[in-house]
Write a structure and sequence with these properties.
By secondary structure, this protein is of the alpha+beta class. Helix content is 33%, strand content 21%. The protein has eleven helices and 17 strands. A hairpin with a 2-residue loop joins strand 11 and strand 12.
Length: 375
């Protein structure tokens, strides 16, 4: 399976082609649209979310709500394009009117201009924008549907915001059923404290990030490989998380904490129950030697503060070379709640690729039968 996205933040829309999906997979547009709505929600979001009301359109590969086995094309059209057509139209437009030369720290602006040329950072930022994740959420919902038919579930929650961290341990069911609406945290008091931090950032023209924890339940052992580094499951899943805009760190299981502990405090002892191998603990986060071991997969990702600050940061004007204040494009104060559903989607896409590589199958009947035969 292969997923490719295209589109610009203020262009006509965001588009995605998914190649290699088996036929007879049910595609639920309402679930996709619900995930898109979650992506636009959350305390601390900006004005763009009031303009857009994202909904998916399926352009190919699906008939009567079932995949055909051909490439699936998904589209999320930008309602805001009507306000930007004069500056973004591929057929001809006024590029000078919305040119951005005061390159913004923390963004792709400067590195992109140096790499791709030109003198307008808008040619870079339009594609680098996290707006691209709208269509990745749509793709992730399709992939999630395939995984769920195999009994594989994904759940996540916001573990920390601006230094307000939830240190409690939760079960998969608590995460799936207990996520609070405003920020996606699980503890009401901690979420209230985090919202105060976001309010402070809004008042002072600043931004903040946070940490998301993700779980995968029901994946059998043996997905991934220890034979080649490209096939290591932990590497592939962490790469998927790090591909999401603003993510600067990813870890598996107890992650970086392993560096400060003794081996006896890190490795999960094995026992056998009902003919099935199990671990007494799950510090490895469900992955050993680059392969799933049948336990829950546990991942965490760290999101940096959004780099577009309303008060602006010091920078250089790329054209004049003079010192300047970075431009304040329309932005969020905190997008951690949106990031959580985006990360779930990125994880679903990567996991679906891994599963289909091992199982093969041209239709869902074959895929489910092959998964059912695995120990």
């Amino acid at each position: 399976m292969r997923i490719t996205t295209a589109g610009e933040s203020h262009g006509k829309g965001l588009f995605c082609i998914i190649e290699g999906l088996p036929s007879q997979l049910f595609v639920d547009c309402e679930k996709i649209n619900a995930a898109l709505a979650r992506r636009q929600s959350g305390y601390g979001r900006g004005a763009r979310q009031k303009i857009e009301s994202d909904r998916v359109e399926i352009l190919s590969g699906v008939r009567n709500r079932y995949t055909l086995g051909s490439p699936v094309t998904l589209a999320v059209f930008n309602r805001d394009y009507s306000n930007w057509e004069a500056y973004m139209a591929a057929e001809g437009c006024d590029t000078a009117a919305r040119r951005l030369t005061k390159v913004r720290p923390g963004h792709a602006d400067l590195a992109g201009l140096l790499k791709y040329g030109g003198d307008d950072a808008r040619n870079i930022l339009e594609r680098a924008s996290a707006r691209e994740t709208a269509v990745r959420v749509a793709a992730g919902s399709v992939c999630r549907g395939l995984l769920e038919e195999l009994g594989v579930e994904i759940a996540g929650y916001v573990k920390a915001v601006a230094g307000v961290e939830d240190a409690a341990q939760y079960s998969f069911e608590q995460i799936r059923n207990g996520r609070l609406s405003e920020l996606g945290m699980l503890d009401t008091d901690l979420q209230r404290a985090a919202m105060k931090k976001i309010d402070f950032c809004k008042e002072t023209g600043d931004t903040c990030g946070g940490t998301v924890e993700l779980r995968v339940k029901g994946l059998k052992s043996g997905f991934g490989s220890c034979m080649t580094y490209r096939e290591k499951l932990d590497a592939r899943l962490c790469a998927a998380l790090l591909s999401v805009q603003a993510i600067k760190g990813a870890e598996v299981g107890i992650g970086f904490d392993t560096a400060a502990l003794f081996g006896s405090e890190v490795h999960d002892e094995i026992y056998k129950e009902g003919g099935v191998y199990r671990r007494k603990t799950n510090r490895a986060g469900g992955i050993e030697g680059g392969m799933s071991n049948g336990e829950e997969i546990i991942l965490r990702a760290a999101m940096k503060p959004i780099p577009t600050l309303m008060k602006g940061l010091g920078t250089i004007d790329y054209v004049t070379g003079e010192e300047a204040r970075a431009a304040a494009e329309r932005s969020d104060v905190c997008a951690i709640a949106a990031c959580e559903v985006i990360l779930e989607s990125a994880l679903a896409c990567a996991l679906c690729e891994v599963v289909l590589e091992r199982l093969g199958g041209d239709n869902m009947t074959e895929v489910k039968e092959r998964y059912g035969r695995l120990p």
